[in-house]
Amino acid sequence: MAEKKVLLIDDNELIGELVTEILAGVPVEIQTTTDTREGLRLAMSTKPDLLLLDIDMPEVNGLDLLQQIRNMQSTQHLPVVMLTANERLSSIQRASELGILGYILKPFKQSYFLERLSAFLGLSLASKDTPNEGENGEDSEAVVKNVAQKAQAIKTKNLLVIDDEPIFGELISAILEDTLFTVQVTTDPREGLRWAMTQAVDVILLDLNMPEIDGLQLGKQLKKMQSTQKIPILVISGHPLSYVEKELAEMGCSDFLAKPFSPQQLIAALSKLIGRDIYWQI
Questions:
Q1: Domain 4-126+144-150 is found in CATH 3.40.220.10
Q2: Topology of domain 155-274, CATH
Q3: pLDDT tier at 136 (50, 70, 90 boundaries)?
Q4: Counting Cβ atoms within 10 Å, is residue 141 exposed (0-12), middle (13-18) or buried (19+)?
Q5: Would you tell me which of 26, 30, 237, 273 could form a disulfide with 208, CB atoms 3.0–4.6 Å apart?
Q6: Are the beta carbons of 204 and 229 closer than 8 angstroms?
Q7: Is 110 in a helix, a strand, or coil?
Q8: Contact 254/232 with Cβ under 8 angstroms?
Q9: Is the predicted pLDDT of residue 144 greater than 60, yes or no?
Q10: Is the pTM of this model over 0.90?
């Protein structure tokens, strides 16, 4: 059976390298380009079985490029999937009107990417934790490390963990390692406040029970300041919700998790706060 041909157009060179490495050893021929003009030429000349197309590109927006593709007779029926972090409703609506097959959302895990690609191509592309090893396995380990590094580079959300127990921050970082979150951890409430005020933070994971400044006081400070008042706060505590519900309402916390909680509960809570699925697996 002839290999399926996939063309990727994305201005981020790392994405092309990441996709190429994920598809190594898979029966798919991948071409990548960061140049939209070159991408259009390749779409016309190579007739790929699937086009993976980014939306937010500097010279030509991916949706405008898709419009050009649909306007030309040689490419108007080309199967297209948007490979993007753009989830704006207007973008989704326009892409749908232009007849895309679907979306693959960045950042992505290898297993999720292969699962989506399998569905779009009508193939069974096995997801492997590691590529085929050579004689000593060193090449395999290097490839896995490279894939992980490139996946890390396309993280799009920032989580700030404020908890006086260092091991807890390490646990959260480990759980979220392969997700869209970059995790910043501090055991010092004052440092957490400074970080939230000066850095880009999408969600704060805040412990209530800390010795010097408790989480309730810190949460109230965060909600009072203009620079931090809109950041969602996920409060965690060893107490049940009924014990602290009144205080949390006064503070204006966005959600609550009682310790101990499972990784699945953390993922569900974070997904709710950012309004999108977080692709994760044990």
A1: no
A2: Rossmann fold (3.40.50)
A3: very low
A4: middle
A5: 237
A6: no
A7: helix
A8: yes
A9: no
A10: no
